[in-house]
Structures are given as structure tokens and as C-alpha cells.
Amino acid sequence: MDCPQLKLENQLCFPLYAASKEITRRYAPYLEPLDLTYTQYIVMLVLWEEKKCNVSELGKKLFLDSGTLTPLLKKLEAKGYIQRTREQSDERCLSVSLTAEGESLKRKAASVPKSMASCVNLSEPEAKTLYTLLYKVLEGFTAE
Amino acid sequence: MDCPQLKLENQLCFPLYAASKEITRRYAPYLEPLDLTYTQYIVMLVLWEEKKCNVSELGKKLFLDSGTLTPLLKKLEAKGYIQRTREQSDERCLSVSLTAEGESLKRKAASVPKSMASCVNLSEPEAKTLYTLLYKVLEGFTAE
DNA sequence: TAAAATTGAATTGTATACAATTAAAATGAA
DNA sequence: TTCATTTTAATTGTATACAATTCAATTTTA
User: Fold this and answer.
1) Pair A48, A106: CB distance under 8 Å
2) How far is the CA of B1 from the C1' of C16 (A)?
3) What per-residue confidence (pLDDT) applies to B73?
4) Does domain B35-106 have CATH number 1.10.10.10?
5) Whole-angstrom Cα distance, residue B144 to residue B141?
6) Which residues of B touch A1 (CB under 8 A)?
7) pLDDT at B142
8) pLDDT tens digits for A7-66?
9) For chain B, which residues make up each domain, given as ranges?
10) What is the end-to-end Cα distance of chain A in Å, rounded?
11) Which CATH code is given to the segment(s) A29-103?
12) Most buried residue among A6, A91, B66, B99 by CB atoms closer than 10 A?
């Protein structure tokens, strides 16, 4: 059995998987001064934009479920970056919002994207193409 | 603070992270009949090509370390797909090779790539471009 | 309106991931 | 040749991920 389609080099999934992991790993040194992991960082990105968000909204935006988010949000709360409160109007919903400390952390994070961009060896147009193709893959999925 | 560079939509890392996770997740139904997870599957891809490989070689090819591979390889051994033996010439090295059952699993796996490709909503040239850009990112990293 | 269905988080269980450390084996230098 | 160094896996500890289940709150329906 030759099966060229089973060769690692013929998979599209693999460089996607490997590149994603490598990028996440290389974020760590830049995120460590903020006391954030990569996943915690993208949650903070949403909150810096939205100010307030419940768990299911976070999950939809970030492709994460409550099994991942619940413990992660408890950690962010323990660090003092966010508050978790039940919504008055619907006690099922957990509302997540920034503390003053969480808000001020945004200033320290401002330099992270530039530092990371310099790690990725792509030209601006290449990066844009990659971005577009990745979103096309994602949207092709959500279409189901 | 406006900080456009901190918006989720301006990150290249995020669609990479999300698309990778989604693809991995969508492999599961196709891999379940093989009793393989995604990571176990890519280990098998290497072994179907190489026949024999030690842990550090696997790690280099797949961007995984021994902390991930050691327990994963023990599971593949427990399933009866691989053998783990110390090399005669250097007892530090653990040689991983296919059993007859692991080898014959290749036949059942042959249809997986085509099934997955149909999940990804890209034209052939788009997929090729994506592939090339992802490897460029990966190679830019290994250059350090 | 009371029961059924749905929704939103939390919990449980399994499987990665990776940093840091450990331990054994092999190599190299004095 | 002996001891320090290096190499290779394994182990430990922390942090995701996600499927499946549970549980409480809300909504829908008969």
C-alpha cells in the first residue's frame, strides 16, 4: 500500500496544527509578565473590547465550551482581572466583566501583538492572505 | 485606549488557533472507527511511512515532546497498534514500530483524508496556498 | 398554570500539551 | 579510565480542550 494521501507531508491539517501550537508556545514569554496564558489572553482580548460578556457569548466568539471556560474564568477572577456575577434578569447567565486591574492590564498588553508579529516570518500581503484563508476555513465550518 | 492591534479581529494567531482546533475536532468522527485520537493519528501517519522511529524523531517531526508522546505511545501500545522496544545499540532510545494490526489499520485509514478534505471549504489552489503559507510560518520558527 | 422542553453553566472524565526536573545511558575530556 | 557532560525518555505539575452529563433557571406547550 503506497497511499500518498496518508503521507504527513500531504496533510493540510498538520501544518495548521503545528503552526498553531508553535505560535501559542511562542506567546508565552510575552504573556508571562501579564500573568496570562494564551487562552486567558484571548479571553481578555474579548473583554477589553466588549467590557461585559457572558460565558456562552465568549464561547461562541472563541470556539470554546464551558468545560474550558468555567475553570479558566475562575483563574482570571482569582488573579483579580475579572468579576463573575449572575445576571439579575436571568440567573442562568454568568456575566463576566473587567476589574480596574483587568482594564489597566490592557496598557501592558499593547506591545504584545507587535512582538509576536516579528516572530512570524511572513510579509504583510502573505499574512493577509493567510488570515483570509483561515477565516474562510472557519466560516466554511460554521456554515456546517 | 483604543488599541486596534488588540482587537480579536486583528489577530492572525486567533483564526489559526480556532481553525486548528475545529479541524481536529472534526476529525474525531472519522477517526473513531479506527480507535484513534487526532494526535494518535498523526503518530500513526509517521509510522505508516517510516515503519520504525524513536521518540525524539517522532517529536521533531510532529513538534511534540516526550511529556506528550510517552503516555500517548503507551496507549497506542495498549491498543495493540505499536511496539515499544529499547534499542540494542543505545538503551536510551525507545524504538517505536508497527504491529501487524497497526500496519493493517492503514487500509481503514485510507479514506480519512478525502472525508476531511470535503469538510474544508477551500478550492484546490486556495488549499495549496494555505499549505505553503503555513509551512513558511513553521520554517520561519525553526530558523529561530 | 403545571408539566415538558430548552437553555446556560458547571461538573466529570479522558486526552492532550509543554515547562521543568529526574534518571539512566552514552560520550568526551583530562 | 574516570568523572563531567550530554543525550534520551520518563515523570511531575499546570493548563487547556471537548464530549457527555447534570442541575438549576427559564420558556414553551398542552
Assistant:
1) yes
2) 37
3) 98
4) yes
5) 5
6) 106-107, 110
7) 61
8) 999 999 999 999 999 999 999 999 999 999 999 999 999 999 998 999 999 999 999 999
9) 1-31+111-144, 35-106
10) 33
11) 1.10.10.10
12) A6
- CB count, 10 Å around CB of A109? 20
| B74-95 tens-digit pLDDT | 999 999 999 999 999 999 999 9
Given an 8 Å threshold on Cβ–Cβ distance, is A131 in contact with B45? no
Q: How many CB atoms lie within 10 A of CB B125?
A: 8
Q: How far is CA B1 from CA A91, A98, B36, in A?
A: 32, 15, 47
pLDDT at residue B143, rounded to an integer: 55
Distances in whole angstroms, Cα of residue A55 to Cα of each of A17, A61, B14: 26, 10, 18
pLDDT of residue A99: 98
Residue A95 three-state SS: strand
Determine the residue of chain A that is closest to B1 in CA distance: A107
- Residue corresponding to grid cell 476555513: A137
Q: B108-123 in b/e burial notation, b at 16+ Cβ within 10 A?
A: ebeebbeebeebbebe
Residues of chain B below pLDDT 50: none
Cβ distance A18 to B63 under 8 Å? yes
- Nearest to residue B113, comparing CAs of A46, A18, A3? A3
